[in-house]
Every structure is written in C-alpha cells, then in structure tokens.
Amino acid sequence: MVARAYTVAFQGVEARMVEVQCAVTAGLPGFSIVGLPDKAVSEARDRVRTALGAMAIALPSKRITVNLSPADLPKEGSHFDLPIALALLSALDILPDDVTQNVVALGELSLDGTLVPVVGALPAAMAAAAHDRSLLCPAASGAEAAWVGAAQVIAAKTLGDVVRHYTGQVPITPAEPGEVPPPSASRDLRDVKGQERAKRALEIAAAGRHHLMMVGTPGSGKSMLAACLPSILPPLTAIEALETSMIHSLAGLLDEGGISRGRPFREPHHTASMAAIIGGGRRARPGEVSLAHNGVLFMDEFPEFSRTVLETLRQPIETGEVMIARANAHVKYPCKFMLVAAANPCKCGYLPDPARACARVPACGEDYLGRISGPLMDRFDLRVDVPPVRYTDLNLPPSAEGSAEVSARVRAARDRQTARFAEHPTMSANADALGDLLDSIASPDSDARALLLRAAERFALSARGYHRVMRVARTIADLDGAAEVRRPHMAEAISFRLPDPAGRLAQAAKS
Fold first, then answer.
1. Beta strands of 126-258 (E only): which ranges?
2. Of 125, 235, 287, 398, whose CB count within 10 A is highest?
3. Could you report the per-residue pLDDT of 473-504, keeping only the tens digit for each?
C-alpha cells in the first residue's frame, strides 16, 4: 500500500502542489527519497528517523521509499520534513489515510520532534485553499498563514502534537491571523528645516506612487527626506498586505508571528549586486525590487550603483514585474514599487558652490550624473534639486505642518484613486494608468492642455515624459480635491519635469 501526503514546492510566489508518496515494502532495510530532491530534502530521512525515535516509534526492518511527485519538479528546502513524516506515519498505520490526504503540510523537524518554522507558509496556505485542503505548519508560522481565511490552519509545536491532534486525543485549536504593528516612523517632516519644494515632491510622489529623483550637495537632507516617506504613506490594504507578505514570506522576513500593514521601505547599499537588487541566486530568490513591492525602494548615491544594476531597473519600473530566468526555471515576481533616488551633483559634491567646487567644474557634474542613462532618467516622474540648508535656517522653529497633516492629504488622494480604479483590479494609483484610461482620467482643460503642448515642444518631451507629466498633474489635482486637471496643476507637474539636474546645475556653475 502506498500512503500519501501533500506539500508544496515554490516557484517564485507560486506554490505548486507536491504529492509525497511513501511505500514500506519487503527487502533490504533502507530509507530512500526520490523525485529530484536537493541536499536539504535528502537529509530529511535522518531527521525524520530520529524524530520518530524520540517519540518511541521504531521503523520496521523493511525498505522505505518516499517519492516526491511530480518527479521532474526540483524540490528544495527543509519544509519537506513534516509531509514525509506524515506519509510515513500513515504507511505505518499510525495516522489514518483520509487525514494525511486532506492536509497540506510543511515544516522542518528537529531531532527531538519539535517543528521549526520555515519560509513560505503564506503561499502554501493559498495553495491549500485553492485545492480545498487544510494547512499543517509549525506554531511560529500559524499567525502568518491564517491570513488566508479560505483554509483552516493547524499550527503545531511538535510532531507528537500532530499525532495526538489527528488521532483525536488532544485537538489543536485552529490558528488565528496575527498582525504585527508597523514600526513607528523615526522621522517626521516637521524635523526637516526648509526644503519646501522637496517636501512637496515627496507628498506628490507618495500620493500617486511616482518615482522621484533628488539631486543635492552632501548634507542637504536628501536621505533625511527619504527617511520621512514611511511617515506619510498610507497603510497597506488587505490585498496589498497579502501580496507583499507572500514575497516576504518566501524571503524569510516574516518572523514576528504575523504580517504588517506598514509599507516596505528598502534601502540597499550602492555596492549591492544585480542578484541582490533584481533577484536571483541558485534558488532565484526575490531581490530588493520585489521586497519593495507596494512600498519604497530608496537608492542613495544612485550613480555609484553599477551601470548593469541601474540599467536592469528600467524594465521592472515600466512593467511592475521582474522575470528571473535560469537554466532550470523561469520565475516571475511582482515589483510595483516607488523608486526614490538620491545623488550628489558631481563627484566632489559641490558643483553649485564656486567656493568649494573642484577644478573640473562643470565637466565633473556632466560626467558623474552621466552615469545615469537617458532612458532611465526619463522614467523618473519627479526631479527636484535639494539646495544646501543655511546654518541660519537650522535655528528656525519647526514647521507648522508635519507628517500627520501631509499623510492625511496623501490618504485622501489615495482614496480618490482607489474609487477611480475600482473596476481595474491591476491598477491602484495614478502611476499605473495607461493609454485610453490615462486620457480619460487626466484629460486637462483647454488652458492646461495648451500649456502641456508648449512644454512638450520647448523641452522636447518624449512620449513617456508627456504621459508621466499627465499622471503627475492628475495626482496634484487629487491632492487639491479637483475633479479635473487645470492649468496650475499642469504647471506644477511640468516644473518637476524640467531638463535633467546635471544640465541645470552645470548651467548654474557656468554662470
């Protein structure tokens, strides 16, 4: 007789169902696992054998064969321990067949039978719900997996608890969804002295999920401004929290007993590799662009990133997803993020200051910001210069308007966009609008359209730049509570789309 249990194998955010078949037959005693297992899965036989021994369950002197079907699908990770143990317990008639065949299990076994949490409990719960099965997982992963309300989640502490539950001795209460409070924002816009134009750019970017480029001298407050972004962003909706947490679950970042409604804020160092930013590695893990899904990717010292890394950002920015191609798999991850980049105007950093600039002005600025290609720069909706703060401004009283007031306007603008895109499930913010839909929602009045056409001719806007100005103008109108885009909204949007910072700063240095 062949006993069966079920688990999942991960391909990106997709969890594919795997049938664990176990047969105990006459022959030379042994324990083998087949079905394209990796090293961690092959070692499961020793963990399972020892864990059963700790429960005083002796394996028979027969041949034990475990097959992971489909056999051509690579099996990776230690989460196969628990389903292998369930299939073996069913083959030994310790657990009934109907129980193991109606549950999807994942979890790592320690040698004393304790269940160790593993990555991917949330996608596994989604797969279990799709196949009308319950989920069995370690206790530490229960609060995370229980967010999928369509599947019952049994979270056990030990293998012994699993046996007692399914034999009816000591039933385990189904897990309840857990929510981790987002970390309190350490920065408030009220702490930023001056920089009113940069604050306004942050507000517009947060309201419409627009990409933002900040250029300024060292110490002008670019990093501090970016650190204020979490304090003005609205919390994740339930659907967004589930999407984001599925990626974080696969990356092993959900280790606090639940998921968070706070938007991700990722800030990789400029020495990060392409695999770290885009994703990849031997197991095609999600990169920073995917971990920032529905949140912010802050890239400080933007020109210092390698050219290869910067150029690979172009497609994810445009499509909202990234495909990681490997010889044995093609894995797709979502990556709708808001890119916030910060850069110095030149290598020495003081291009606009004649008293401190180096001897290569203005060529040094053109060379330095020239590391950012034109097509990549064209994808930034907002470009803002961040001037140095004068020491006299540091003694001014705090601004009357802080993150709380700005956050209220951002949330109101996001609510308008949610209602606007209610019939378009793939869109949630103005930055997502394309084609005819963009024309219908951002159709400016006659004065605003005439201004946009003159600006497009004067500054030679590309088609992408033209549409990005329209999206930003629509967001500004949403912040203003206006039903249509008017001339002041369009004028402000165009002001953030002026020629690239390198050209303007070079002109300032020449003059």
1. 134-138, 153-156, 179-180, 212-216
2. 125
3. 999 999 999 989 999 999 999 999 875 544 44
